[in-house]
Amino acid sequence: MKIGIDTFASDGGKSGVGTYLHQLLKRIPPSGARFELFGWDLDRFAFSQTAPDIEFIPQCFVSGRTANSLWHFFKYPKFSRSREYDGCFFPAAHRRLAYNSPCPSIGTVHDMAVFWGNMRTREHLGPALRMLFPNSLRHLDRVIAVSQWVKQELVDKVRVKESRIEVIPNGVDLSAFYLRPRNEESVVLIQPFSFRRPYILYVSRIDYPVKNHVRLFKAFEIFKERTRYPHRLVLAGADSHGAETVKAAASESRYRNDIFFTGHFPATSLPELYSGAEFVVFPSLYEGFGLGILEAMASGVPVVCARTASLPETAEHAALYFDPWNSEDMADRMVTITTNREVYRECRALGLERAKAFSWDRCAERTLKVIQETVEK
Q1: Is-contact 105 87, C-beta < 8 A?
Q2: Residue 172 phi/psi, 5° resolution?
Q3: CA angle at residue 48 from 44 to 53, to 5 degrees?
Q4: Strands 193-196 and 187-190
Q5: 310 and 286 in contact (C-beta within 8 Å)?
Q6: Cβ neighbours around 345 below 10 Å, total
Q7: CATH number of 2-170+359-376, picked from 3.10.120.10, 3.40.50.2000, 1.10.357.140, 3.90.1140.10
Q8: Where does the chain hold its CATH 3.40.50.2000 domain(s)?
Q9: How confident is the model at residue 125, as a pLDDT?
Q10: What are phi and psi of 369, to 5 degrees?
């Protein structure tokens, strides 16, 4: 049995989808089905350490999302037949997907952001791709949704049959994200950065408006005015759509000197960054899962997050919630978590317990089982 794995749209292994694929590849058993990766030539080494024994086939040598989408629509079928795949797995099916596949196909959908909000706020596919994308999802033999929220969106928005959707939550790497002893040092050194404590952390790409940084800046101003605390706001993530709008808003804040952008932050250093934070704030207007919430909870850091989309499903009772459209409400929860130590300790304990419910081992085992069952059907 030979199965192709599409690495396009995994952002070179650096995004949430990249983390997902890394974790699956690490857990592919040495015996059984033969797997093969295909994607951008520049991604050849992105997964080489994770999966050194899996062959990588570079494809689509014209850059750009549109060109790559067209490759999937018109070139992928011939490529798949030439490689004699018995099945193909699309780990970023919400971003890149073939219209038809000559072999059984399985895709993971992490969110439905392309259908979120209005035409001004949502990710743009272009009119032609927008018309074809729902059919592409419906043509998958099996669809893996990372949350019940995403599953319901697949059913409601693109009419994927519920019987073909399997909900398999992401995991959290408890060998990397765990409760570390808190020292009293005033500075957290993570080369090449130096973070002065105390700091509030938000780990996410810089994306306007969906990640909601601008309202967070307003809430941070209110928090600072009410408490007069020395906290800083650390934003760890690479620039994405509308990053210039976010940075302009930060530069206009009265507390701009306390707002720090790291740019893309190395995944290997994230556990230290989480552990040094006073708390994590997650104000996103839309998320299909919310991996950063689990990483913070597993690190023993309280979470304050938006009551929207899939986030309550992920965090359950282990977070303090706010209305993401209301900066005052956001600031209220930020003040509570810093001034009420009983609430702080309770969120911390509940978060550590909640994180134990998610496992990359279980995620990989169930995902590989779905792939195998689909191919063998």
Answers
A1: yes
A2: -140, 140
A3: 115
A4: antiparallel
A5: no
A6: 11
A7: 3.40.50.2000
A8: 2-170+359-376, 187-355
A9: 53
A10: -65, -40
User: For residues 303 and 278, what is the distance between their CA atoms, to the nearest angstrom?
Assistant: 10
Between the alpha carbon of residue 232 and those of residues 153, 199, 217, 224, 272, the distances in Å are 36, 5, 11, 9, 17
d(CA 349, CA 274): 16
Say which residues have a Cβ less than 8 Å from residue 143's Cβ, sequence separation at least 6.
93, 106, 107, 108, 109, 137, 154, 160, 164, 165, 166
Beta strand residue intervals within the chain, DSSP E: 2-6, 34-39, 55-58, 87-90, 105-109, 142-145, 165-167, 187-190, 193-196, 199-203, 232-236, 259-263, 279-282, 303-306, 320-322
Q: Which residue has the tokens 């791709």?
A: 129
Q: What is the mean pLDDT of each run of 10 residues along the chain (377 residues)?
A: 94 87 93 91 89 94 85 95 97 92 97 72 54 88 98 95 97 95 83 92 94 98 98 95 96 97 92 96 96 97 97 97 98 98 97 97 97 94
Homologous superfamily, domain 187-355: Glycogen Phosphorylase B; (3.40.50.2000)
How is residue 230 written in tokens?
């020395």
How many residues belong to the chain?
A: 377
What is the layout of strands, in order, in the sheet containing 199-203?
Answer: 259-263, 232-236, 199-203, 279-282, 303-306, 320-322
